[in-house]
Give the backbone structure.
Amino acid sequence: MVRLEGAIDDEIDHYQNLRCIGALEACSRLLSLPQCARMPAVEPLAVHLPQEQVVFFPEGGERRVVADLWNQRTQPTEFFAYNSQNPGTGVKYDSFPEQFVWSKVHRMCSPRRVKNGTIGRIYTVHPSSGDRFYLRMLLHHEFCEGKFHFLIIFHQVLFLLISGKKSFEDMKIVNGVSCDSYQMVCSHLGLLADETEWNKVLEESCAVLTSPKFRQFFVTLLVFCEIPHPISL
């Protein structure tokens, strides 16, 4: 490309002069057709522990926000409230936006009038976040949805209704047993690996590492490897 001395080097002008527009792109621009689209719509879903939701407030308005019940309604709490009022509907948390619309202004869910295939995506949580990571794992599992079970006893069909989870505390109950944490719930449901592999790692490293190195290696496992039950090692 020939450049004149003293001319301004405009990169945008160079791009427009050198670009090549094909017949398809030229036709779509002449007809004012959309160049891109996102289909279906994606609704982000929050995940938080009880009373640990994210709230926004102006400077000096901390007390009002804490006392305001309006700010305590979040997407997870609305999902639990729906399960309380509609047991056995079989709706999981990640598929909740397919039927309901979350209003950020009114902080409430309303039935979706137009079913346009909206999908939900729960925010990513790092494994080091503790129980919040395991709560996200449970919200993806069928454990949190209500459903009907069919039982055949003496040639009779019985309907067994299992309601969806109604609160954060209800998420900690597995087969009538209350767990202390969501990590224990995931362990009871078989969503976590056991400590067998970690025991083998420690047995092998014990034969080749000195005592200071072995202790350092053990601390590294506890800090970075997210062992389900470190006390049992």
